Amino acid sequence: MLVAVDTGGTKTLVTGFLEDGKAGAMIKFPTPPREEDYVTLLRNTIIEQFYGKPVEAIVIAMPGIVKDGVAIWCNNLHWKNFNVGKALKGILGKDVPVFIENDANLAGLAEARALAPMPESVLYVTVSTGIGTGIITDGHIDPGLRYSEGGRTLVEYKGKIREWETFASGKAIRRTYGKYASEIKNKRTWDSVADRLSRGFLATIPILQPDAIVIGGSIGTYYDNYATRLQDILEEHLPAHIPLPRFYKAKHPEEAVIYGCYYYALDQLTRR
Predict the structure, then answer these.
(1) What total number of domains does the chain contain?
(2) pTM to 2 decimals?
C-alpha cells in the first residue's frame, strides 16, 4: 500500500493506494494554518487509517517549492523551511520512507501519464487557491525545471507588473467577481477569466514551448466554459513561429495530486 497526501492551500486530502493503483476512501480536512497543527492532525490521521497495514511509502505533496524534502516556501500558507518529512519520519515504521514533492509537479506527473500517446513535454497548470505549474518531460518531473513557479510569473496587467496568480487564481476570481467558479454562469465573466489566464500563458509558452498544456484545479474543472476564448486569445498573440500547444482539461481536476503521489512513490521505490 502507498499513502498519498495532498496538502492544499485550503484543504488536505489523504488516501491509500493498493497494488492495483486504485485509490481508497478520501479523508479530507481543512489545512491548518500553523505548521505544528498540520503535523499533529496529519500524524493522527495517518496513524488512525494506516497503522499496522503493509505501507511501502508515504508521499506528501506541498503547495510550494520543495528542495531536499524541505518546503522552502508555501505562499498561500506562509510556511517557510518546513521539514515535514523529518516531522513524520518513522510514523508507520522506520523502514517506511516519507517522500516530499511539490503538488503541481505531482499533478503534472499524473496528468501527463494519463495522456495517450504521452507527449514529450507537458506543462501542467493548476488554477485553484493559487496557480501552480509542473513541467513533465518524457513522463517524469523535469529535473531542471522542478523548482519553477509559474504562478509567480511577472506580467503586466491593467498597467501594473503583477504576479500571475494575484489576478488569475481561483482566489483572485472569487475576490473580483464575488462568486466561486461553480456559481459563474455569465459568458462575459468567463471570457474575462480567459483573458486573465491568457496573460501568464503568453509569457510562459514562448519559453517552454510544451507539446501539451493540461489545466487542472478548481478552475480547471470548468475549463469548457472558457476554453475557446482562451485559445483564441493565445492564437491571436503568440508569434507566428511558436505553435499553440494542445490543451487538455485535467482527467482528475481536483485529485491529480493524489494520483501523482502514487506514480511518484512507484518511481522512487524503483530507484531505491
Answers:
(1) 2
(2) 0.91
